[in-house]
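Hey L., structure's done. Input below.
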Amino acid sequence: MNLTEFHKSTSKELLAVTNRVKNLVQHWPEVGRHKEAVLKNIIKKFLPEKYNISTGFVVRQTEERGQHLASRQIDLIIYDSDSPLLFREGDFAILTADVVRGIIEVKANLQQASLHDTVLRANENGHFIFSAKDEDDDGFFNGIFSFEGFRDPNPITIANAVVNANAIVTELAGYSKFKVNHISFNSDLFLKYWPDEAQPHSLYNLSELSFSFFISNLVDMLASKSVRKNNFIWFSTDKELNLMHTF
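Output:
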């Protein structure tokens, strides 16, 4: 039994399915939406049944009865499946902030899409949701998932983009609980935010395991007791041996 190969198969499956469509259809907006659907279906296989995943919007109430604010459309939202939804049609949902457990921004190629702008937008979505939760609420998963890009990564360039995007929201209350905490740049390159560390961002080069680490960290935030009890199964390699850069 080879757990590393098992986890690498997640990357191979994601890339194989998306490339199959890419080879047939060159209309990029449609291909982009298909990538979201492929990632959603893969993640759903790992989620406990108490959670669901959809694309859609998050709304929050204001101090004036009958008025509300809505987020930008979020590529993927992970939420409690036993909670009430304002609207659901197929894989599209509109829900309130309190039921959200994770959000994911999906990119075909994060390098082309602008890392700085994507992190900033994800941070803003995270703040919109977190500011409507209870003050003592734990953080939630705020991730960015890219199928391609950064094949010849410059760690300093990556660090500067992330730090500059974070600087815009760093003074907001609860910053460490709502900011982007996981980024999969491609099938190899992975970033994790450790809030208690002096240099909290760690960039890892994980051969064909970045996608798996991204999903395993999401599951860890949703069901940490089981994942941590079986840590070597969910994380088949020691990522610290593959650490590239901290900042």
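The CA atoms of residues 60 and 69 lie 5 Å apart. The chain has one domain: 3-48+112-246.

-- N.
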